[in-house]
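It would be a great kindness if you could assist me with a short task in structural biology. The matter concerns a single protein, recorded as an amino acid sequence and a row of backbone structure tokens. The record follows directly beneath this note:
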Amino acid sequence: MIAGLCATLAACGGGGDDCPPAADPPVETLPGVSDCFTVKPGLRYTISDPDKTYVAKSVFYTQEKFDGAVHPVQLQYFDVEGTSRASAQYFSVDADGVRFWGDYDYTPEGVQATKSVYTGFLVPNTLAPQQTMTFKYTDNNYFTNGGFLAEAEQETWTFEGHETLTMAGRTFPNACRFKILDDTLPSFGTTVMWVAPGYGPIQYQFFNVDGTDRGVRNLATVTEP
């Protein structure tokens, strides 16, 4: 190694200016909106909810038909085993960003309670770190008794940056961190959501309007597809 170094120095004129400058190290490309919401089909994990703020106990990602087209779906279950559905959230990672299509909600008995179809709910790839955007969309609610209600929704998202989280015995590098305010329900406070490439949303932290911490929810155990 020493001999090789000496030979290199000699070839460069003994350390003069004859050698080309050292190459700059490669610049790390951090994940964007679509990267963070791209999830492995077949991924399953259980939910840690120490503050008892949520009814779902586990999550499974697959693909299902919703409103005439097949989309990725995040299925949430009332039980750890994943046998009793609590909700189904349909989305897609498109060229222009992440589009949320709608959801189903279920009773603990497994009966569909509502179907919501979102119109115009897109989080664009142009949302960059340290940037804030406000999204307006329509939530079309269909009830099993035949009722219908269209609600105008508005959410403000801030892409706060990237953060590496460690949980469930593994590390999730460069998770996208978003702060979300439901402008139609400002009394609900704010939600901070961490979204990891390959895994989707892995942690939520909830804050009251006065800034006090209302609780944390995150993944507890992971079963890879």
Observations:
- The radius of gyration is 23 Å.
- Residues 1-16 have pLDDT under 50 and may be disordered.
- Residues 137 and 153 are 5 Å apart (CA to CA).
